[in-house]
Amino acid sequence: MGNGVCSRRQRRIFQCLLLVTVVCGMFYGGMMSYEMHKQLRRTEAMALKYQQHQESLSAQLQVVYEHRSRLEKSLQKERLEHKKAKEDYLSYKLEAQQSINKEKNQHEDLKKQYYDLQDQHQAQGDDHNRQLDEHRERYDKLQQIKELEVSQLKGGKTNGLEDASSSFVSIF
User: Fold this and answer.
1) In angstroms, how far is CA 137 from the centroid of its own chain?
2) Distance CA 37, CA 104 (A)
3) Are 106 and 85 in contact (CB under 8 A)?
4) What is the C-alpha to C-alpha distance for residues 168 and 163, in angstroms, rounded to an integer?
5) DSSP H or E stretch at residue 82
6) What is the per-residue pLDDT across 19-45, written as a single tens digit (0 to 9) for each?
7) What is the end-to-end Cα distance of the chain in Å, rounded?
8) Which of 61, 120, 157, 164 satisfies CB 3.0 to 4.6 Å to 152 for a cystine?
C-alpha cells in the first residue's frame, strides 16, 4: 500500500509540472505571437510609407515627362516659326533690310531660349536621376534590413530585431 500512495503523489507532481510547462509554453507562444504581430504592423506601416513615397516620385516623374513633352512641342513650334521667318527673310530681302535684321535678332533670341531650355531640361534630368539613385539606395538598405530581420526572426533572436529596427531608423 505504501507504493501505491507514493506513486500517486509522484503522478500528481508530474501532472502539476506538466500543467505548469503547458501554461508556460502557451504564455511564451502568446508573447511571441504578440511580438510578431507588432513587428508585422510596423512593417506594414513602413511598406505603406514607401508606397506613398514611390507614388510621389511617380507623380514627379510624370510632371517631368509632361514638361519635356511641352518643351518638345514648343521647340517644334519654334523651328516652324524659324523656317517661316527664313522664308520671309528671302522674300522681303529687297523690300526692307531693317525688318530682316529684326527677324535675325528674333531668331538669335529664340536660339538662346532653346539652349537655355535645353540646359534647364538637362539639369532637371540630372536632378531626377540623382533622386532616383538616392531612392534606390534607400530601397536597397531597407531590403537588406528586412532580410536581416527575416533571418533573425527565423533564428528566434529578438535582440537583433531591436538592432535592425534602430539601424532602420538611422537611415531616415
Assistant:
1) 9
2) 72
3) yes
4) 9
5) helix 2-91
6) 999 999 999 999 999 999 999 999 999
7) 74
8) 157
